[in-house]
Amino acid sequence: MSAPAPTRPTAAPTGGVDMRLPWWAVALPAVAFVALLLMIVGSGDAHAAPADPAVGRLLARALALLTG
User: Fold this and answer.
1) Tens of pLDDT along 21-39?
2) Computed from CA positions of residues 34, 35, 41, 42, in that sequence, does the dihedral angle turn out positive or negative?
3) Can you give the pTM of this predicted structure?
4) Among 3, 31, 53, 65, which is least packed, fewest CB within 10 Å?
């Protein structure tokens, strides 16, 4: 049995590559950039959250149990 020989296309495509991006391929990075920029600019009003004393006691108790 013989296999069919592969055929070449009759005419090679001419010209440059015609690629178009979907709208969201440009919009999503732009929106992400603006969101990150706003987070950086608005961080001047940020304050540290107060620590819960119960967490410190829990960690001290766990350390005491582990060390002996």
Assistant:
1) 899 999 999 999 999 998 8
2) positive
3) 0.41
4) 3
